[in-house]
Design brief:
Number of strands: 11
Number of helices: 0
Order of helices and strands: EEEEEEEEEEE
Shape: globular
Largest sheet: 7 strands, mixed
Radius of gyration: 13 Å
Strand content: over 45%
Structural class: mainly beta
């Protein structure tokens, strides 16, 4: 069993920044992939960013140049730095991990709310 605990969400004005954290109960270096996803009201959950064990990083097109995913294996934590936030970034943000390079994610956090006011 792996526990993932997100934090760092909140209310911010458009153009502002937030840094989300995802603390894992197991060594992050053991995960094949860790990712951030988000779900806005009335919408499906969508991919935001992933970071792989070998260092590869992928972003959704709508966050490129604004968001940065990073990992601190010493702290077993993955971060999502979000800059130039827009009202459409408002959502619950979830982190997830996958032990294998393919297939569904194995564990999810409970989510943290991000609200961007215009």
């Amino acid at each position: 069993q792996v526990q993932l605990v997100e934090s760092g969400g909140g209310l911010v004005e458009a153009g502002g920044s937030l840094r989300l954290s995802c603390a894992a109960s197991r060594r992050t270096s053991s995960f094949a992939v860790m990712g951030w996803f988000r779900q806005a009201p009335g919408k499906d959950r969508e991919f935001v960013a992933t970071i792989w064990r070998d260092g590869r990083i992928y972003y959704a097109n709508f966050v490129k140049g604004r968001f940065t995913i990073s990992r601190d294996n010493a702290r077993n934590t993955v971060y999502l730095q979000m800059n130039s936030l827009k009202p459409e970034d408002t959502a619950v943000y979830y982190c997830a991990e996958r032990d294998r390079s393919t297939g569904p994610y194995d564990y999810w956090g409970q989510g943290t709310q991000v609200t961007v006011s215009s």
